[in-house]
Specification:
The complex is a heterotetramer, with two copies of chain A (202 residues) and two copies of chain B (222 residues). Helix content of chain A is 41%, strand content 11%. Chain A is α/β, with parallel strands linked by helices and 202 residues long. Chain A has a single domain, classed as Nitrile hydratase alpha /Thiocyanate hydrolase gamma (Nitrile Hydratase, Chain A). In chain A, the strands form two sheets. In chain A, strands 1-4 form a two-stranded parallel sheet. In chain A, helix 3 packs across helix 9 (175-181). Chain B is α+β, with helices and mostly antiparallel strands. Chain B folds into two domains: 1-119, Nitrile hydratase, beta subunit (Cyclin A, domain 1, Orthogonal Bundle), CATH 1.10.472.20; 137-221, SH3 type barrels, CATH 2.30.30.50. Chain B has eight helices and five strands. Chain B has a five-stranded antiparallel beta sheet. In chain B, helix 1 (28-36) packs across helix 5 (68-82) and helix 3 (48-56) packs across helix 5. Chain B starts with 27 loop residues before the first helix and ends with a strand. Classes of the chains: A alpha/beta (202), B alpha+beta (222). Strand 4 (205-212) of chain C pairs parallel with strand 3 of chain D.
């Protein structure tokens, strides 16, 4: 894992410290700004908003129709105003969607938080477009040959989030219960939302 | 730029390695770097496209060895130096000063005047009608610019079909080099895996990618 | 294999740096590495295509950082280990032994029996007539194998014209993986720069490259 | 220059020493073999044979015709027997030839000796096929726009050597005199054979 991993290399740390002090001196970074800027990711680390959008879409057909057509009003319903670059990709029995950014690491952080390191790593970026089925199998998701895989390469400022299929065993669940079941990986397209332990058929 | 950052379709990087329970940041310096872009960007010292250009311009081995936030650090420094916000040698000088005196007191300065009246967001009014419509067959240009581009190599000279119109947006190939926003229509284009990868492409697989209008030609032209 | 070794058309590696009065070898160890391939190759332990495959299989950063003869060293070791001429850990063990006892006396052993009756050279008798002739329009296949190939990315899916017939030769894509020599006809094919690089290609420039028959299709097919 | 340069890294040296001793133990490397194998390159480091082929071709039209048609008999005239993979590329007023190997570093060492480091480096390998004219200009050779550049990518076992144009100011020179004028770079295609200092028009 070390290969693509972060480091506390003293040279890097010294450069960052020097840069920070110069930016403050030049009025480009204010005291307390680092904590303020990163607070939302550190306090709200998971794909909270994404999970809530999906949970509501599973329960409310009209919300879902709106979400996959134009997500902007749906985001406003959850307090994220004026963001018109999110595109929701609906998984179906025939289509599985997968999100990548081959050129850098674009990611829908507005709804999923900051991306995990593997999403930003050369193995994921290089292979997702060339051999998505093999890559997903390696990551634990077998997509049947009969199902189409659509890979979305985030080359512009549009951001993509997958609307996964609702798992069996969740009939009658509330929006909050459903949202708690939804983790990050299915919203990128590298996993399914799991059927709850002990659930019978839907 | 045909750089090592343009990774779509490469072999040899090994399996995807997942860190369980990964923290949002691994080290304090990563938090600082994350926050350091916002002041310069809000003041119009560099834009997001120039930020990406700076990362792509890293020496290839440095790029591949660097962690994600190391790349951010490099491009922040190189962009600030390009824009003369940092003088040559200023950063190294400060490293020396801080090493000699770790408790060096930094006086918080007043922000500089904004350089550019940067418009918010990426969408811009369209001055020309869109050339393509959903369903149109298109051919991605075979263009190998040494500058910044968002047309990856694996898409070039391939045929696809317009899936959706995305709006008119700032053009990175121009904006990254300080040559203006030059907005263009953007389209989501679908490419079949067999077109991109020939016999090596999977069945029932396709790539969707957002491409600016000048990256595209009608499929008849070649 | 779409690896970092497949460099044709890349940007970002900087200017060509010429060393004046360069010696043939810079260090003694390079002489040793140069000579070390001949014994194993003559005994059929690995062939030139497997040798190249071993280099291409190096981790990308390692490949880019390594000097030319470091790459040779890596592929000699990995090929000898693949072929069980070196046991797992044997090389590291010897490093430890030599560190403990720099004057370790090595007894020269008897050469092992040849593994394969390797035929000399690369030319082989043709079993089928050549499919193409000089002047024929051809299309390079768009094939992205994870294995060894001598069809570089920048040529794939491009149209060219056969310049010359080169003879029937051992096929690297097979031979590199121990799947036999599978000889094929080889052609020198001319590709115009405008076909390879679109608008970025120079005027009055062309690339000639030697391609095996199965890399090519008649230009009509696509 | 250090970037693509050789090294005496102790770890590498220790691996080579261990490999050498194991190969000797296994009968795959004999004492004295290293010196014997590299002797020809260390004693005959320059492009001796290439220079002699070119010098003779400049003086003998029939030899030149044979050389550019099928170099094998010409090589035999200089003592290299049975090598049938060399192709000679004739520069003309209209065509300039350039040799590269983008995938590794194939080089006509039978006639030019071992390649220089720059030939094996990423900058040369990457740029020769994409922007040969700019690359050559950087290396000091201006090829006029009107002249076609043919880049030969050595992807198979064929090996390429350029037959450069004979410079002015060499009328009446002997084969030995001409051969001494011919250095490695023009035979790769990254330079011209220079007009001798003090020479008048040819």
């Amino acid at each position: 894992m070390a290969k693509f991993h972060s480091t506390a290399d003293p040279y890097i740390v010294s450069r960052v410290r020097a840069l920070e002090s110069l930016l403050m001196e030049k009025g480009l970074l204010e005291p307390g700004m680092v904590d303020a800027v990163v607070a939302r990711f550190e306090n709200d680390t998971g794909p909270m908003l994404g999970a809530r959008l999906v949970a509501r879409a599973w329960l409310d057909p009209e919300f879902k129709r709106q979400l996959v057509t134009d997500a902007t009003p749906c985001l406003e319903a959850f307090g994220l105003n004026g963001y018109d670059l999110l595109v929701i990709l609906e998984n179906t029995p025939d289509v599985h969607n997968l999100v990548v950014c081959t050129l850098c690491s674009c990611y829908p952080w507005q709804v999923l938080g900051l991306p995990p390191t593997w999403y930003k790593s050369p193995p994921y970026r290089s292979r997702a477009v060339l051999e998505p089925r093999a890559l997903l199998a390696e990551m634990g998701l077998i997509v049947p040959e009969a199902k189409e895989i659509r890979v979305w390469d985030s080359s512009a400022e549009l951001r993509y989030m997958v609307l996964p299929e609702r798992p069996a065993g969740t009939a009658g669940w509330s929006e909050e219960q459903l949202a708690a079941l939804i983790t990050r990986d299915p919203l990128i397209g590298v996993a399914l939302v799991p059927t709850p332990a002990g659930a019978g058929p839907a | 730029m045909n750089g090592v950052h343009d990774m779509g379709g490469m072999h040899g990087f090994g399996p995807v390695e997942v860190e369980q329970n990964e923290p949002v940041f691994h080290w304090d310096w990563e938090r600082t770097v994350y926050a350091a872009i916002s002041g310069p960007m809000r003041r119009g010292i560099f834009n997001l496209d120039a930020f990406r250009r700076g990362i792509e311009s890293m020496e290839p081995v440095h790029y591949l060895r660097a962690s994600y936030y190391e790349r951010w650090l490099e491009t922040i420094i190189s962009n600030l130096e390009e824009q003369r916000v940092l003088a040559p040698g200023e950063l190294d000088g400060r490293i020396v000063d801080l090493t000699a005196n770790p408790d060096l007191v930094v006086v918080t300065g007043r922000p500089p005047a904004a350089r550019l009246a940067m418009l918010p967001g990426f969408r811009r009014p369209a001055l020309t009608p869109a050339r393509f419509a959903p369903g149109d067959a298109v051919l991605a240009r075979n263009r190998h610019t040494a500058g910044h581009t968002r047309l990856p190599r694996y898409i070039r000279a391939k045929r696809g079909a317009v899936h959706a119109y995305r709006g008119c947006m700032v053009f990175p190939d121009s904006n990254a080099h300080g040559r203006g926003e030059a907005p263009e229509h953007v389209y989501s284009v679908r490419f079949e895996a067999a077109e991109l990868w020939g016999e090596s492409g999977g069945r029932r697989e396709a790539v969707y990618i957002d491409l600016w209008e000048s990256y595209l030609l009608p499929a008849e032209e070649r």
